[in-house]
Fold this sequence. Notes:
The termini are far apart. The chain is α/β, with parallel strands linked by helices. The strands form three sheets. Strands 3, 4, 5, 6, 9, 10 and 11 form a seven-stranded mixed β-sheet that branches. The protein has eleven helices and eleven strands. α5 packs across α11 (319-332). It folds into three domains: 7-119, Winged helix-like DNA-binding domain superfamily/Winged helix DNA-binding domain (Arc Repressor Mutant, subunit A, Orthogonal Bundle), CATH 1.10.10.10; 132-202 and 311-332, D-Maltodextrin-Binding Protein, domain 2, CATH 3.40.190; 204-305, Periplasmic binding protein-like II (D-Maltodextrin-Binding Protein, domain 2, 3-Layer(aba) Sandwich), CATH 3.40.190.10. The structure holds a DNA duplex.
Amino acid sequence: MLEPILASKLPAANAGRVTMPQRTLPVRRRRRGDSVDWQKIDLNLLVVFAEIARCGSVTEASKALGLSQPATSYALQRLRNTLGDPLFVKVGKQMQPTARAIAIEPVVRELLERIQVEVLRPGSFDPRTLKRCFRIAMSDIGESYFVPPLVRALQENAPEMSLQVHSISPRQLEAALESGEIDLALGHHPDLVGAGVHQQALFTSRFVVLSGAQSEHKVFSIDEFQKRPHVDVCTPGRNQEMIQLHMKQLAIPRQVQVRVSRFLSLPEILKGSEFLAVVPLEVAQYLRRVANLGVSELPFESPSFRLMQHWHSRFQDEPALKWLREQIRLQFGRSD
DNA sequence: CCAATCTGACGTAAGTCCCA
DNA sequence: TGGGACTTACGTCAGATTGG
C-alpha cells in the first residue's frame, strides 16, 4: 500500500474517524534525480488528472469518470505522491491547478490523445468502413482543381467518408491546423512553416496569361502585354502577390483596370474583351476547360511556386489523415 | 495445481473546511 | 449555519504471487 500522505494514525478513542488535517497537504517531495517508480504510476491516474483539470472539481470528474468521489480523490492522492506535487488546491469551491499541473496538462492531454489514436485504435482503420469528415482549407479555384479528383477517390475507396472545404485566410491557417479546426491545408503557403506544421510538396507551377478568346494561343509580345488592359485577382493567397511583385521588379508596367477577389470572376470579364489576366497555370487550364478562355505563355520568365499539402504534427500519425494525405499525393503529386 | 497470502483499488461512512 | 466539496479510515473484493 502507498504510504498515507498524512500522519493520520488516530488515537483509539476516536473510533477510527480522523480529525481533518491542515488543508495544505504535505505532499512528499520528489528529489531531483529520484527515479520514477513505474510500479506506482498508472495511466488511469493521468485520465483522472485530465478530467479534474477539465472540470475543476473532483466530484464532477468522478461523475464523468464513472467512479465514486472518494475513489477519484484517492486516485488524485496517488498521483500527488507519484509526482510530488499537490497538483490541485482547493480555492473556494474550485480545485485550482498548481503551476506544475498547468505545465503538465497539455502534455498529459497530448499523451492521452496519442494513446487513443496510436495505441488503442491502430489496426482498426479501414477506409471502406470508417465514417469521417475531412476538413481541408483551400482557395476557391483550389476547390475546383483539387476537389473533383479527390471526391472520385473517396467515392471509390472510402464511401463513408465526407469532405468539407474551408476558406481560411493564410494568417489563420496555422492556428486552424493546430486546433484541429481543419485537417489539411492545400495550396501555396510559403508562410506556413511553424514548428508544428509538416508539409509535402505536390508539384511546382508557374504563371501564364489568360485572355478572352480560346483561339488566342499565341505568345504575347511584351508591348502587347503592356498595351492591353489587365484584370488583377487579389485573393488572400500568396501566389498572386508573388507575380505582381515579380512584374514590379522587372519594371513591367501594366494597365490594371479591374481588381477582383476571385478567379471565378474572370470568365465573364475576359470573354470577348481585350482584358488579360496573369494566373497560375492550373487556374488557366481549368478556366480554359470550363469557359473556353485562351491560355498563353508570359512574355517574360515566370517565377515558379510549389503547391503543397500542410498538416499539424498532432495529426501526423492519425491513420485516416495519413490515408488522406497519401490519396492526395497519389492524385496530385508529380516530380517536376 | 491449489490454497493461503499479499496488494491495491473501490465504496461507504463520517469528519473537516469553506462559502453563501 | 447548512450544504457542497474534499479527504480519510476501514471493509471488501479481485487479481497476483508464493509456497507446499
